[in-house]
Design brief:
Elements lengths: L1 H21 L1 H5 L1 H18 L3 E3 L11 H5 L1 H15 L4 H21 L3 E3 L5 H24 L5
Antiparallel strand pairs: 1-2
Length: 150
């Protein structure tokens, strides 16, 4: 559990605080959307028995909350920062962030931090990350049109 807290929450938020200084709007707009997507997907997957986060605590929400509010939220905020503020190529960002998060997930499987049931695999994980980042892409584009982001 300590590994999940340190690697999945504390370390990402060190980078998150740096990004907050550069673009605080992201943390009041996209970050909550990302956290909501992460909590919803992770809790659904865990409760449907598609995957487990180890160690499994007695309080079921604690199994992934540090990851949901940490690395997943900061990844979404970073994606939005590079998309809206740095004006990087959207296809390249979608590819890099989706493959990057899928690779981290694969590493967590190898390290036995996460385990999949027979009904789930890394390709489905890739699709889920792609859907999440595409959702953030459209949300970011809308926030740019509304003048929230530059």
């Amino acid at each position: 559990m300590w590994f999940n807290i340190i690697a999945g929450f504390i370390i990402p938020w060190i980078f998150g605080l740096y990004m907050y200084r550069k673009a605080p709007e992201i943390f009041f707009t996209t970050a909550p959307i990302t956290a909501l997507i992460a909590v919803t997907c992770n809790q659904a997957g865990i409760h449907l028995g598609l995957w487990e986060v180890h160690p499994m605590p007695k309080v079921s929400l604690l199994d992934s909350i540090f990851l949901d509010l940490g690395i997943f939220t900061i990844a979404g905020a970073s994606f939005t920062y590079f998309l809206a503020y740095k004006k990087k190529n959207q296809f390249l960002l979608l590819t890099v962030f989706t493959l990057g998060m899928t690779s981290l997930e694969y590493l967590s499987i190898v390290m036995e931090i996460v385990s999949y049931s027979d009904k789930w695999n890394i390709f489905y994980t890739f699709l889920m990350y792609a859907a999440g980042f595409i959702t953030l892409y459209f949300a970011s584009k809308k926030l740019v049109k509304l003048g929230v982001y530059p």
